[in-house]
Write the C-alpha cells for this entry.
Amino acid sequence: MTKVKFFSGENIPLEMHKVRIVQKLNLPPVEQRLVAIKQAGCNTFLLQNRDVFMDMLTDSGVNAMSDNQLAAMMVADDAYAGSETFNRLHAKLKEIFGMEFFLPAHQGRAAEHIIAKTFVKPGDVVAMNFHFTTTKAHITQCGGTVEELVSDEGINTQSSCLFKGNMDLDKLQSCIQRNKGHMAFLRLEAGTNLIGGQPFSLENCRVATKLAHDNGILTVLDASLLQDNLHFIKTREAACAHMSIREIARALADCFDIVYFSARKLGFARGGGICVRDKALNDRMMELVPMFEGFLTYGGMSVREMEAITVGLDETMDEDIISQGPQFIRFMTDELIKRGIPVVTPAGGLGCHLNAREFLPHLQGNQYPAGALAAAIYIAGGIRGMERGTLSEQREPDGTEPMAAMELVRLAMPRRVFTLSQVMYAVDRIEWLFKNRHLIGGLRWVEEPGTLRFFFGKLEADSDWQEQLAAAFRRDFGDSL
Ligand code: F0G
C-alpha cells in the first residue's frame, strides 16, 4: 500500500485517484426532509434519491467505477450464448480463486437462492459466523435454520479485537456434533456485514473449514465483502504481512468448495455468481441458472456489467484501491469517537456503524432505536443510512419479535464516492444530533410485511419528536441547510 505521511502528523486518508465524472447533489431544507421521511414511513429504503444529499444507505451497486472499467464496457461481446465477455469474466475468476466452474447470477441473493435450493433440505442447519438478511431468508424458506457461531467478541460493539468476524471454533465443533447428518454447509462471510463489516483471519478460516471438511461438510464463502477482508488480513494478520493481496485471496479460496459473491460490492459493478471447485457440485446447481437467472453465459447480467466486473476484480487485487474504503471509514469512526459518539470499534469495512442503543439509551428495544436514529440522521443532514437492528430481523414463525444482538445504524461508504469534506459534514450533523439526542423518540409499525420487512415496511414516530427535532435544527442553523 502506498504510504504517504502528512508533515503535520495528522492521520488523513489520501485518495489515490482523481475524480473525473461527477453527479450534482441536492440538499433539501430541513422542513422538506421532515416531509420526505414521513412519506417514506420512516424507512430510509423508501426515500427518493432526489431528496438525499449523502447516500450512505449501502455500498451495493453504487461504488465509483474506474476509467478502465468504463472502457471495458465498450468492448462487451453481446451474445446470448458463448459470449467472449463471459469467457473473460470466467477466466479472471479462475485466475483469482483457482476454481474451475462459474455459474453467473444477477446478484448475490440470486446466488444464495441457488445454493440454498440445492443444498438445504427441511430440518437442515447452516452454520455460519453471522447471518446476512437475504442469506437467512433463502435458507429458512427452504426449511433450514441458521446457527450463528461468531466469536463472542464479534457482537461486542466496543472492542479491540482485530478479527471480530472469526468463528468460535468450540461452538462450531459442538454444532457439528449436535447436527450430525443434517448440516447443509458451513458458510463464512467475509467482511461480516451485520456486525459492522468485521473481518475473519486466514488462520481462523483455515481451521474452521478444515473442521468442516474433516466431518464431510461442504464449505461456502460469501465473498461479497472480500475486498475489505483482504485488506484487513494484509494489515492486521502478522503471518500474512508478506503475502500479496492476490496470494491472500487464493489462500482463502483454497479453503472452500464454493465461493459466491455479490458483484454489486466485489468488483465495483453489478451482478453476481458462484465459483465452484468440483464438477459434481457445479452440475447440481447448474440447472437452476437458466430457470431463474438466464442462460449459463450471462445469468441475468448485462455483458457491459460483466466486462466491468472483470476489470473490477483485477482492481480488487490492488491494495491502493481496496484500502480506500477502510481508511475513510476509520477516519470517520475516529472523528466520531473524538466527539464522544458511540460507534462500533474497531472500524471495519463497508461503513461506519453507530451504536444506537448507546446513542439513545432512553429508548426501549421495541421502540426501534436504530430505526429512529436512521430517521433522525436524515432529518438532521439529508444523510441516508440504514437501520441494522431489530427492524432488520424477521419475526419467529409464532409471531414473536426477537430483539437484535446489536442496534446499529450503518453509514455505508461507497468506494471512491465521497470526499473528505462530505465525510466531515456527516460527522458534524451527527455531532449536532448527539447533542440533541434527548429529542429523539421511538417508532411504531404502520405496515409490517412478513418477509424482509425492513425493505418496504412503514413506520411512524411515536410522538411529535420529528417535528421537535426539525424545529431545533432550524433554531440552531438559522436559514442554513
Ligand atoms: N452477502 C452479503 C455479505 C451482502 O452484504 C449482500 C448484500 C448479499 C450477500 C446479497 O447481495 O444485494 O447483490 O443480492 N448486501 C447489500 C447491503 C444489500 O446493502 O449490505 P445482493
User: Anything to note?
Assistant: The chain has 19 helices and 14 strands.
